[in-house]
Predict the 3D structure of the following.
Amino acid sequence: MSLKIEIIKDKILSDNYFVLRNITYDLTRKNGEMIRHKREVYDRGNGATILLYNREKQTVVLIRQFRVATWVNGNPDGRLIETCAGLLDNDAPEVCIRKEAIEETGFAVGEVKKVFELYMSPGGVTEIIHFFIAEYTDAQRANAGGGVEDEDIEVLEIPFEKALEMVKTGEIQDGKALILLQYLQLSGLMS
């Protein structure tokens, strides 16, 4: 039996950059009891992320950039080591991630493999992120990377084992990076 949901109020609080809505709804539980919830929901669109890896060199490509939300929440310099990612902006996930890879990392990747799609913060954010991996070679470097005009991205080529250690030490705190690094480790693609 599915839950019964009735929207009581759906008010846009902000549409400055993304959309923040205040939604009041009645939820009828499977036991028949009805409860009213009032929640704020942030819709920033869906995104895609990719981890580039090189089996021969046993390396991965990550990026470091300033993230104001992490700075507000205690990250002293606001910079975060993470996987290359971006919003879909009406592109298919694979098209988006290929564009982001070349803009942010400088690598024009060949074959990409979608491994899953996940809600990353379902308590209040609508976003689904499509997760990809792709093997890269030095010959695929098309430019230095670094992002587009309003981005200041540092490209990091890191030994795979060191990246796993950086998760343990807290140097890597990006959930996308952690998930894809563990995926690579469990898949046996990297030794």
